[in-house]
Write a sequence for this structure.
């Protein structure tokens, strides 16, 4: 016949296991992380970001966390099932864009890569450089002067002739 432990013993054993888990987790987690919260499991703080975006002020998400964690322009959070560090302000942008492919790498959560597919937004490394170079040939100053200025001039003149002067 199977004997079960009394409930007080189960509670004590569970408490000791939990304490040991917390101690071992604390000792192995020596990574220097910025302040912040990962929020709910799996969801993280994604709902707060989406709510701010739907209200038309997505920057509110960043501002609330920067105010909450003091003057730090860097905070950790969990968005769309991925743990991330968010860098805010000009210094954060300078660090990211100045050290791209050196100290930091562009990374997009799986859900966003799936949503956007392979495009300029989600590409990185040599592929991104190649795509930007191709875009520059269509959107750069030389392309504007040779391709688009003449077309815009014709369309503008036609619009003025038809809608403003009356033909």
């Amino acid at each position: 016949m199977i004997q079960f432990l009394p409930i007080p013993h189960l509670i004590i054993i569970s408490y000791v296991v939990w304490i040991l888990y917390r101690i071992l987790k604390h000792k192995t987690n020596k990574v220097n992380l910025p302040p912040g919260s990962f929020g709910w499991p799996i969801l993280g703080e994604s709902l707060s970001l989406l709510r701010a975006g739907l209200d038309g002020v997505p920057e509110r998400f960043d501002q609330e966390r920067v105010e909450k964690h003091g003057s730090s322009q860097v905070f950790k959070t969990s968005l769309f099932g991925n743990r991330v560090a968010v860098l805010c302000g000009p210094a954060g942008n300078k660090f990211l864009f100045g050290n791209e492919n050196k100290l930091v790498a562009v990374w997009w959560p799986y859900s966003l890569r799936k949503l956007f597919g392979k495009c300029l937004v989600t590409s990185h490394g040599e592929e991104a450089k190649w795509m930007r170079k191709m875009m520059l040939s269509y959107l750069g100053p030389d392309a504007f002067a040779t391709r688009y200025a003449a077309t815009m001039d014709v369309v503008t003149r036609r619009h003025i002739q038809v809608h403003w002067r009356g033909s």
